Give the backbone structure.
Amino acid sequence: MATQSGITISGPDQPFTIVNDIPRSTPGTKQALVKGLAVGINPVEPLQQHSGLLIQDWPAVIGSDYAAVVLEVGAECTKLKPGDYVYGCAPLGQNNFTPFQETFLVEEDVTFKKGDELSVEETATIGAGLLTASLCLLAGMELKLSDDGTKAPEENEWVVVLGGSGSVGQFAVQIANACGYKVLASCSASKSSVATSNGAAATFDSRASINEQLARISEVTGGNFARIFDATAYGYDVMIKALETCSAMTTKYLTSVDDWTEFDTPSSINEYRAELGHLCRLDEPIGTQVTRDIASWIPTLETHLRTGSLKPVEYQVADGVGWESVIQGIKDLEAGKAAKKIVVLTQQE
C-alpha cells in the first residue's frame, strides 16, 4: 500500500505528530484524489485536537479549508479532471477526505472548481466560512442568490449579522448584500471597516451592553428586519430580544453557528443551526440534508465568486511550507496572534 506524509493525532488532547505512513486513498466513482497545496486554519482544528469532535477513526488526520490540484478522478466524475485546481471544506473527521496529508479525496458534488480570478491562497480562505454562512442564510433564512452572479436589486429590508468581521460573518454580510438586503453587522469598533468593506451598510459595537446593542438595531433598521444571524455562537440573547422587541415583521428567522447549546426559541420564530460538520455523513438525516443543500448551491456560489459579488476574506500567509508550518499556524490561532485568516502552503506545485 502506498503511504504518504501528513499530520496525525492519536487521541483527544494529544499533540500533533508528523508521520510518513498515512495510507494513500483511491477515488470512488464520483470522487477525485487531489494533491493538497494550501490549507486555511479555522477554530475547528484546535477544537478537534483537544476534544476529538466528529473524529471517526484514530489516529486522526484533520483539517477543513483546502486548496488542491486534481491527480485522479473516479469513473463517473463529469466536472473534474486531472490538472484542475479545486478548493472547499473537507468533511470533518473523515481521514480519507481531510487535508493535513499529501493527498486526499474530495467528493465532486461538494467541491469548488477554481477559476483564473482567484489565487490558490485566496481559495484556501473560502470553504468553511462560505458554506457555513450559506447554510444559515440560504437554508435558514430562505434567501436566494441570483443564478447569473449578479447582485439582486436592493430590498427595503435589513439583515442583522452578529460577528460581521469574522470569516463566517464576512461571508454572511456578502451573501445578504448580494441577495439585495441592507446589512447591519456587529463587530468590535476596531473591526468596523472589515464589515463595511464586505458590504455592511452600518455596524454596531459587539462589546456594548445588550440594551445598547438593541437600541442601535432599532435606530438603524427602524424595525424593518426579520432575519438575524449569529456567527459568533455567543449572541443568542441579543438575537432573541432583537426579534421580540425590535422587529416589526411577522415572520422571523433566527440562525446561528451554535449547534450545541439548548435554545428556548419561541415557535413563532424560525430557528436554524448550521451543521457543516455533518457534510458527507450520508448515514444521518442531517448529513444527507446538509450535503444535498451544499451540492445544489456550489454552481451558484462559483458563479458569484467568478463575478466578484462574493470574494475571499483577507488572509495572511504563514512563513514556511509544510506540516511544521501548519502546526505553528494552529498554535498562532490559539494564541490570538492572527490578525487575519491564516493560510499555510503545504506543498509546492
Summary: Residues 3-126+312-345 form a domain with the Quinone Oxidoreductase; Chain A, domain 1 fold (CATH 3.90.180.10).
